[in-house]
Design a protein that fits this description.
Length: 583
Amino acid sequence: MAADAAQIKKWETFLNNKDPKHAITARYLYDHLFLAHIKFGTDTNEFYELLRSKTPAGETIDLINTVRPYDDPGVEKFYYRFRKIHSTIVHKTHMVFNFDDAQLRRFNELFIDPKWLQEPHLMSYESKESANPFITYEQIPPRSRYQFLLDNAHYVIMTFIRGPVCRGQIALNVIPDQFWVMFQDPDHDMSVRYPAFLKHQANNLIMPIEKGSKFPVWDLIGNKYDKAADRYFKARQEFYMALNYNGFGYEGIWKGNKAEDTPILTVYRHFDSASVHKGVLGDLPRTMWVMDYPLLERIYYALVAGFDVYGTLGHQLAIRLYMDGLREEGESYFLNYMPEDVRQEMAESWYKGIKPKNLNHHDAGMPTKIEYQTDRPKLEFIQNIVTKQINPETGITFDAINFVPDGNFPPLPDKYEVLEDYLQAFRSVSQPGTKFFSFVTDFNANVVYIRIRETDGTDVVLSMVINRWHDNVSFLFKESSTLDPSKDNVDFLLGFHGSYPNYFIDITQEQLPDFFDLLANLDTTDVEEVSKRFDVYGINRAESDFWEKYDWFQDRFNKNQPVQSGLFDLNRYFYKASKQPEI
């Protein structure tokens, strides 16, 4: 604790420096880190939250409790303080951010050392102004702001993928079940290179959050925020085209600078929750996103900093509809890298049942400098990015289990002696349309943890993540009408993925042949027989030793990820408990 106390003192001194440059920097950092579980660069495994207090360091914290981090604190003088988290750490809200000496140097390098666009000055907390970071923080160089977001891309994306906004089926039905996210390189982000563009477009970068938590439903008629977003998108594309006559090549994608960077992320939707992971997990997804600075910042402010989980129906509906446009925008920036003659068809394949004229943001308009050599440009593009462009220090490579770009799934192995045999078997049964996965999604088992007990006493743990096919993700309701179980697929991932396991499976090595036969050759016509076979491996919540088996998975997670782990949430574990036979 003494080491943490020294770090806290150092950081509170930095954040509470009254120099305007420090004060605005601290405000920007607080906006983005108010959900973080902060770990200082010490050996202790304690976590803290950053908050605003009426009292300075050395005194008991007098919390300034506001709905949003950018709300008016209500007092003339306040202080940024750190409060230790004493509550149980649960994984779904455990988003770790490191505050060590290297981070302090980085913040100085990004925010304090550079010359700002304006003489640093304090900004008001007027509600509409505070809800627009492109006005509140226009004095900070966009390169500094964007590089901060890129340095911490995994954390930033995690705040809305695992944050309060992404809870429940309707909220999650705004994203596909699996997609990859990339970022515009700062040197090729025109809003970073030409900050005047952001200043000029500030009124088109408004968000529904400027109305607070009480957004009137009738304001959604002729939604001015959608219209503003449309105007911005068109202006952005014209501006990029004027400065990049031939479009972008691979140089337009951020490659990462150091091993810890996450220039590509995988997002999974697990029906009514979601998770985000470093790298390219799974097979080639239907859709990908490319985010630039204005898009990433708006997604964060609209879905995290400005979102009120207790807001009115109008507020939550406005955010949900606004996110539709942001998703389309990210997809369109990816389309900018595709051949022009395939863009419309590609976009329509993501939005079956939607009239092409309604896909406004997919009218990308820019050419691409890339000269494609194959008739599979999406695959060719991502293969070049991963194998030739991304900084190799990041360790990002294609998924050895699930990435099957040629569609040739291997057969089941003849034996199950080593890990490679298991992985071949999982790859074999992961192809779209496998009946078993349609069977388990009927009770929303989208994330299943599998324990394989090997004969030598060791264990292998995998996550089974089912990706459900949606014809489109544009509708709030009647999601079932967009599903096509014949196209569902599954990813088998080593380790733990997701916060809400829907089921546990416990298998011995000797049982693997029968287990994979069940997965590969399921006869869904006999539901009773299917359930009987499945119950041999699945851990029923009615079992007398359920908690003992749960503890094993939880302990293994804690051991594998001592800093990032937290308690799993079992509220979404398969609800149906079968009566167990008496002994």
